[in-house]
Amino acid sequence: MSKTITAPSAKAPHQDVFSSSEFDFDFDLEQGGTYEVTSQPLPYGFLFSPKGKGLPLIVLSPHGADRTAEGSRGFLRADWLRKLPYNTLVWQDPTAALGDMVQSGFGLGTAEHWTLPNIAHVVANLRDQLGIANENIVFVGFGGGGFTSLVLVSHFPGASCFVNNPNTDLLKERRGALSKVLGLGYPDLSLVDLARTFPERFIAIEALKANPTPPRLYCLQNARQDVRQFRAFMTGMIGIKAKAPPSTEDHGGDGLIVDYYVDDQTSNKAVKPELWAHHLERIADWFATPQMRAASRLTSPRTAPLAIEQSPVRGSWHALLPTEVAYWETVISGRHGKPETVKKFRERAAGHYPVPPSVVTLLQRLDIVRARLLDVGAGPHTTIGPVLYGTRLNIVAVDPLAEPYNELLDKYGIEPAIRTVKGEAETLSQQFTDERFDLVYCRNALDHMRAPWTALQQMLDVCTPGGMVHIEGSVNEGLKQGYGGLHQWNVMPAERDLIIWNDEGAKLASRTLTGVAQIRTAGKDAWFSATLIKEL
Length: 536
What we know:
Elements: E1 2-6, E2 33-38, E3 44-49, E4 57-60, E5 87-92, H1 116-130, E6 137-142, H2 144-153, E7 160-164, H3 170-173, H4 175-185, H5 191-197, H6 199-202, H7 204-209, E8 216-222, H8 228-242, E9 256-261, H9 273-282, H10 291-296, H11 317-333, H12 339-349, H13 357-363, E10 372-376, E11 387-388, E12 391-392, E13 394-399, H14 402-411, E14 421-422, H15 428-431, E15 437-443, H16 452-461, E16 463-474, H17 477-480, E17 490-494, E18 497-502, E19 505-508, H18 509-512, E20 516-523, E21 527-534
Parallel strand pairs: 1-2, 4-5, 4-6, 6-7, 7-8, 8-9, 10-13, 10-15, 13-14, 15-16
Antiparallel strand pairs: 2-3, 3-5, 11-12, 16-21, 17-18, 18-19, 20-21
Helix pairs in contact: 1-2, 11-14
């Protein structure tokens, strides 16, 4: 069935913010089919597959322009309609009509006609016809379609969003794909102008900030993909959820879930419908209707195994400690595969190495003659050079494996400039009951710790008032290492905040720690740093 609707063109009243063309029409709740909306500045198209009033509505966002062999535009994900047992709406991005070579999916339209508010208007119309609440709507999208899903869900407080490898900031992440769209629909505007004039169009997090109720969010992330865009997504979403009023933090289910997977899809493609359906069943309790569970059971892949990689079963922290000792024996003995690694360690053990630049910057605020430094998780030898500006630094280095490390040093005839002493980050205040440190340093060790949030709090507790806790290391090391050995956590900077997370959950430093006056974070894709200044 195909239905053509002729709708007048009308601009929204606040043209300085955005403008759009409004149109209303009724979907056929008995038959569904293809709907084409004409007489618009840009053509709209919808595929609707009805499954019954009162059942949830799944809104699929396009990733790009799906073109037939003849070059005409079609519907991406159209084959999903028969595979998902929910009321399903697929919308075609009108932006693709700007030019034959435009591959969109971002719903940007033009500077005069932003298309996503119209899509939201249509979804609201269909929601009312189905007689369901926002809590029964889930927006689904991959990549650029994940971006539009995040923007659309911002119009529906209480709704859910289910995304796969999503984009969040198009101006930073998808400049190549945007080039033709911007040239045709937003001429004479620079990227800076676009970000300043239309932030909610190009940055999904800005759209979500306008909604005081953060969406319930389920994210599938391909473990083989680059984590840079995922870092931006996680930073933004956790930041929004942390700032939400406590009463709206959750709506009867987990507020933010991330699942990692590896499937047989080649290149940067969305997961298959069977995997979407499998995970939709997992979030059935998020929805307000009991029929969701009944419908979702139809799609559960009970017989065919999914090509999904689950997080490995983790051993206890103490059971994993020998893996770290084994690694350092290869370094201390000189058998490590990289001679440069052995050379650097031996120089450090002999005391012939500088203070890290980040530590120098912090020490310039202190009286280095009297300052006391604590290196937490120092390994066999601290990475803080022993001398700065001709002054020998007062450094205490602790590590839970200090005893086996020192045995290895003695075994291979290495006398370190600074001996590491035994100490666990999670019990620092018990070890240093009457001692306080002006600078507590932790390099590339937080992801190894048994309880990193407890460890961070303990570092603050043994820090002098006005002193600093400085953390640096590899971004999301647990993910990069496949949670092997002691790499059980991921750490990454947020905007003036620090996130520690794994597949069991995520927390922000500002929401978890006490006694912090200020948090400063920095870092690129591979390395982060964070300085926590303790309250006076």
